[in-house]
């Protein structure tokens, strides 16, 4: 979408005036482009009159749940992380005045790189030689995030760190149950896994900052094979770092996988590191015991099944537009995630 078309959620003259007054170098008028890619928040790239680019993020349109899409919280996380080893876009300004464009929003610097959603995003962008390096950078960034002492960087109150996995199990099982009727999906293994996982939660280490959705889809990658920035900190909190690791590894498909969470994953292209190599690298860099990783893998596959079922249920209830959505594939992903969770849980039973 170009700057002369409609900009959902943007009062252009007001927001450009505010940005000009609250940044050191952005000079209107701006060229606006909406960035796609599955983000729940509305995200725009702006280019000012002298060619300087930046990113504007605001919540989605419509009624929001309490505490959801907290732009101020996400902005504070970026401010706290910008001087650490974790690469994030430089935060520029946060606006809490809803009169400017109808809601709160923030501006951050634009970072060079590409988020990888599909295999097509990899081809012609990152050479096979550099894909292994990207895997190393990807897991090193996660390990570096989990090394940070939250209190030391001002994020000690980001969330409640204790009993993270137990609370997540309850939250998403409640979501599963509330969506049963609308989704019309019968998967007894989800119920069985809830009971099984709830009785086998490993002892949790001291709470650390967890991203919550760490994958190549939420990182910007360079052609040279480095993570240049980690994006979308909206659901970041304090919790068990190994839960974050398990989620990241679950997103990392391999060409030999017979069952995957999604089709055409970027890491199915040749040259990427194997999950076992990433796990070993994380253990070495973080100095953490990762022997319980199969539990965290099962937990995250199970959680994904609950999350996707909730999304599917909202489509079935007519709460979201189904335009361009393959509902059969979305439904299939619920069954895939549950099967992958069962497979991972079976390794816990026999280990």
Q: Compute the average pLDDT.
A: 93
User: Uncertain spans, ≥5 residues at pLDDT below 50?
Assistant: none
SS-derived structural category: alpha+beta
Q: Which strand-content bin applies to the residues?
A: 5-15%
CATH homologous superfamily designation of the largest domain: Aminoglycoside phosphotransferase (APH), C-terminal lobe
Radius of gyration: 21 Å
For this structure, the CATH topology of the largest domain is Aminoglycoside 3'-phosphotransferase, Chain: A, domain 2
Record the SSE blueprint.
Layout: H1 12-22, E1 31-34, E2 42-47, E3 53-58, H2 71-81, E4 91-95, E5 105-109, H3 128-147, H4 164-183, H5 188-198, E6 208-210, E7 219-221, E8 227-230, E9 237-239, H6 241-250, H7 275-286, H8 293-316, H9 327-350
Antiparallel strand pairs: 1-2, 2-3, 3-5, 4-5, 6-9, 7-8
Helix pairs in contact: 3-7, 4-5, 4-8, 5-8, 5-9, 6-8, 8-9
Throw out a few tags for this protein.
351 residues; alpha+beta; Phosphorylase Kinase, domain 1; Aminoglycoside 3'-phosphotransferase, Chain: A, domain 2; 2 domains; 5-stranded antiparallel β-sheet; 9 helices; globular
Describe the 3D structure.
This protein is α+β, with helices and mostly antiparallel strands and 351 residues long. The protein folds into two domains: 12-109, Phosphorylase Kinase, domain 1 (2-Layer Sandwich); 119-350, Aminoglycoside phosphotransferase (APH), C-terminal lobe (Aminoglycoside 3'-phosphotransferase, Chain: A, domain 2, Alpha-Beta Complex), CATH 3.90.1200. It has nine helices and nine strands. It has helices at residues 12-22, 71-81, 128-147, 164-183, 188-198, 241-250, 275-286, 293-316, 327-350, and strands at 31-34, 42-47, 53-58, 91-95, 105-109, 208-210, 219-221, 227-230, 237-239. A five-stranded antiparallel β-sheet has the order 1-2-3-5-4, sandwiched between helices. A two-stranded antiparallel sheet has the order 6-9. Strand 1 and strand 2 (42-47) form a beta hairpin. The longest helix is centred in the last third of the chain and has 24 residues, at 293-316. It starts with 11 loop residues before the first helix and ends with a helix. The model has no long low-confidence stretch (mean pLDDT 93).
């Amino acid at each position: 979408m170009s700057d002369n078309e409609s900009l959902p959620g943007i009062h252009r003259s007001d927001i450009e005036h505010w940005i000009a007054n609250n940044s050191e170098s952005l000079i209107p008028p701006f060229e606006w482009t909406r960035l796609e890619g599955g983000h729940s928040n509305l995200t725009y790239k702006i280019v000012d009159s002298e060619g300087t680019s930046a990113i504007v993020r605001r919540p989605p349109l419509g009624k929001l749940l309490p505490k959801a899409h907290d732009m101020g919280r996400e902005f504070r996380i970026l401010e706290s992380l910008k001087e650490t080893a974790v690469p994030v876009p430089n935060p520029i300004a946060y606006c809490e005045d809803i009169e400017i464009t109808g809601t709160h929003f923030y501006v951050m610097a634009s970072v060079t790189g590409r988020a990888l959603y599909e295999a097509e995003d990899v081809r012609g962008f990152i050479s096979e030689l550099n894909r292994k390096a990207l895997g190393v950078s990807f897991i090193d960034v996660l390990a570096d995030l989990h090394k940070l002492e939250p209190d030391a960087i001002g994020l000690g109150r980001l969330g409640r760190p204790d009993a993270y996995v137990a609370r997540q199990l309850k939250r998403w099982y409640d979501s599963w149950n509330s969506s049963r009727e609308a989704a019309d999906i019968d998967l007894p293994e989800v119920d069985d896994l809830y009971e099984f996982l709830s009785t086998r939660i490993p002892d949790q280490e001291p709470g650390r900052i967890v991203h919550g959705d760490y994958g190549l889809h939420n990182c910007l990658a360079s052609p040279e094979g480095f993570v240049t920035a980690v994006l979308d900190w909206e659901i970041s909190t304090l919790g068990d770092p190994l839960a974050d690791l398990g989620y990241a590894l679950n997103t990392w498909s391999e060409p030999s996988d017979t069952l995957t969470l999604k089709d055409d994953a970027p890491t199915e292209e040749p040259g990427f590191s194997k999950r076992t190599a990433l796990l070993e690298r994380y253990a070495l860099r973080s100095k953490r015991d990762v022997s319980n990783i199969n539990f965290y893998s099962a937990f995250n596959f199970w959680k994904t099944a609950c999350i996707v079922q909730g999304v599917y249920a909202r489509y079935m209830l007519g709460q979201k537009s189904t335009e361009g959505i393959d509902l059969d594939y979305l439904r299939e992903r619920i069954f895939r995630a549950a099967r992958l969770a069962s497979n991972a849980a079976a390794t816990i039973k026999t280990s």
